[in-house]
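Follow-up to my earlier ticket, as requested here are the two runs.
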Amino acid sequence: MDNETFSPCPDAPVLVIGAAGVDIVGTLKGELRLETSNPSQIRTSFGGVSRNVAENLARLGQPVRLVTVVGTDHEGDGLVREAGLAGVDICAILRTPDWPTGAYLAVVNSKGERQFGLDDMRAINTLSPEYLQEKADLFKEASMLFLDANLSKESIRKAITLAQRAHIPICADPTSTALANRLRPHLSKLYLITPNSAEAGILCDQTIDPSRRRQAMAAAKSLVSQGVKIAIVTLAKFGVCYATAETSGFVPAIRTEIVDPTGGGDALTAAVLFALLNGMPLDDAIRLGVSAATLSLRYPSAVVPDLTLEKLYDKLVI
């Protein structure tokens, strides 16, 4: 698809392809002490970048189809059931007996900052190029493709090829510094990309200090020079930089208590996609995304369960 000719089509579903799993997040009550048990509050909920984006979109009223893989286990049963109840089309979710449902384990300090994270997303490797080819009609029916870099290199390539054949815009999240390079060969085909500062640094071969707005803006512009239509670089508590071939800008973060940082970036991405599909200008779309991230940070789960467009406007950055 020619990124310049994107025509919003909010009535058609967004096709979301990527990881889903169970989040286990422990919030420390004090300083982290190694080689011993640390008092903390531990919560579990369903997560995964693509699952989070899909649920956020559904709760905002956007039709959305999720293509992911979960195990034939209790966790997989619950994830599929809850996604369906949230309004996500779950018909193309694959179940595998070979691997457990994905899991993400994070340790967060008392300030709400992630100390480290572990993930086990082996199940997503079952999502093969052949399976995506079988679902080619889903691409033809979609308004947009969103994928995360948990997919194998081969499946990323196949998904992008099918989206190009269907003439729909392609949006992607690099997911982590370990996975970001999977998107590097495809930057020229992307309508939108949403890396954080560390992931943007990987894609642009530079080190980015999230407190240095100029560095983040340079990275966003570098991604655009590599063919991305819209580059959004998230800087956590420092805000968001964005760039296109015609414009660039910065939106500050909204000061807020951070209960759980898991899912904040996914909420931002979903709100931006929703806004663009509904014809909002990019500046306004980014502000809506920052509002969504702020709401997510205040909630002890990856997705705010009562998310609405009205709630986003209540917290909108002027």
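Run two:
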Amino acid sequence: MKGRTILLDHLNGVEAAASMVDGVLDDLLIDVPDSPRPGAIFRGICDRPIKGQGGMMLRLPDGETAFLRQGRGLRPGQAMLVQVTGLPVDGKAVPVTDRVLFKSRYAIVTPGKPGVNVSRQIDEEARDALLEIAHGAFDRDNADGFGLILRSCCAGADADDIAEDIAAMQAMAEDVMAQADGTDPQGLTTGDGPHALAWREWTAPASVQTAPGCFDDHGVLDQIAHLAQPDIPLGEGTMFVEATRALIAVDVNTGGDTSTAAALKVNLAACKVLPRALRLRGFGGQIAVDFAPMSKAHRRQVEQALRAAFRADPVETSLVGWTTMGLFELQRKRERAVFQGAL
């Protein structure tokens, strides 16, 4: 099937969404029922500071704990609003931020950051029309310091849909921010599951399939099964992507041809497919890439290819650079469920 297709289904009774591009699995979201979703907003209660790190541990509902990286100036017992930024790892605290955002398909409401802005990806003529819609729908008299950002997908969207999104996000923000004070931790929003995220982030332009069993009908299950294998073919070479306790190890190898030209070719191929490989497996944290042996003169070309590949990836990734041992190091945000290798 040509083009982009969005499939909303379930895996083992758990909500999941798949994005297919020209029949190839390009992205996969799987819900984690027993963990707070990224984007969920809580009223947390400060518990204890983390000495030496400047962070703060917070109490959440149901005995959960959260970690706020920037906790200076906070005191134990203080209530504050926090938003989940990723999934907890190995039973650790839930990572949160105090920079709460209210995001929908078309609009983002930003408490504490007033002003109305439009994505720079939208051309000037369309920006003027969108600003007119925003000023008509965004109730600045009652915004209480809120700001508004119109996302790039507003380009070509229906004006009424955009206005409805703006009003809904402002109403949600007003309701949640009004509940910031209290003596007990409380969940205020649940965060979006895979189906809602797919509608929010993926749908245009795409065909959307929601019938039960659509994963099987479109070959998604077969492609998901391959994710349990660490090896990824790269034409005449192979890339292995494996998770260890401390980091994600990536090993790139040539085939029978060990020439400098062959090494560069397979390394550039690895750069192109690495974001997708990490995305589908839900891998994050520290990543070390051992490229096929190549001359130092080719490192710049490989690094440029990596940066270009990750530029379009939706998961925040920092390209740290080359180590003294010739590995390339990356840091990737942990916001996806790690694929466990079983359907």
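The only thing I checked on run two: The helical segments are 124-137, 159-177, 194-201, 214-217, 220-225, 260-281, 299-311. Let me know what else you need.
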